[in-house]
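Hello,

Our lab assistant flagged a job as stuck in the queue for most of the afternoon. It eventually completed. Since we weren't sure the result was trustworthy after the delay, we are filing this so someone can double-check. Below is the sequence as submitted and the structure that was eventually returned. Let us know if re-running is recommended.
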Amino acid sequence: MIFTQFTTDLLVALFLGTRESEIGPGIAGFVATFVMVAATIFLIRDMAKRIRRVRHRAMLEHGIEENAFPEMTVEEQRAKAVHPEEKPES
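-- returned structure --
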């Protein structure tokens, strides 16, 4: 019922000569865009938090602590944990 009313109103507006400047997204378009942007921001922040947790857990599993070897970078500590017999390149 609502769809047919909308379609009828749209066809009447098009045939009566509605200008393009009178047609726009309106409040519904603004709300839909705002909801999508808010959801995207929330999902990106949540994903970053989860990735940070996974990295931290992996570092703990491999025995890598951020301040264990202050003279070594985290990448060098990872290389040492993965290949303990090899020495990292200087």
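-- support follow-up --
The delay was a queue issue, not a problem with the job. The result is valid. Residues 27-82 form one domain. The helical segments are 2-15, 26-61, 74-82.
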